[in-house]
């Protein structure tokens, strides 16, 4: 199968590309810079230069493949206060990829899980977020992807856990570690019972491959661990750093944790039962707490999210 991957040199993309190649697929990665193109090609894939806003490039690249894995998102724009504009841009990107993709082609699009759960009940693949949920901001992208079924495509939206952990991770966990180092203690919101789902990045990559191969239409949950109490994550960080662990009052979470605070405040347990049934996916990698115990997250050179 010929597969186009956007965000191919990113954290998840750098796991998806080798997963697809190992399965015998021919992969082309969208690269917005020479550095990104070099990384994609070093992994063994072809590259095409462009960004998610180069619509002609996207349309032409999608027309040359059998499936698309869409991982790129205008993160810089969203973090600078332009989330609505970032989502609108993403909707246009998804629609353009769908225009290029031939009828019957598969497309797997990344989304999120934080805030999807209600009243502490693990969210399922059938659930839609409440309008005020954090994940609801990405709903227009989800809807645009699923609407491609009306054009003959086979779309799946993969809701990702807030942490796709593994060696080299530059996301939320390194940010929590950096925050703990600066503060001198490892914090957790409130009583620490709020939960995060988690998954190893290689398990996520495997699910993206299965999503385009099996091509089920609808939501899939890239979640291996249903929900880990954030207090447990903070305790593991504190233990490795040799600093105390303590609560951060809920009204101080945003100030203490910065932009990650908004992702810590909802209780976000997530089920993967339907995903396993329809794709045969079975996570095999180590869990988050065990991964933290490997020590690589605490190396001085470990990057942090920005």
Automatic annotation (TrEMBL):
InterPro entries: Epimerase_deHydtase (IPR001509), NAD(P)-bd_dom_sf (IPR036291), NAD(P)-dependent_oxidoreduct (IPR051783). Residues 3-214 form the NAD-dependent epimerase/dehydratase domain. Gene3D superfamilies: NAD(P)-binding Rossmann-like Domain (3.40.50.720). It holds the Pfam family Epimerase. This is NAD-dependent epimerase/dehydratase family protein.
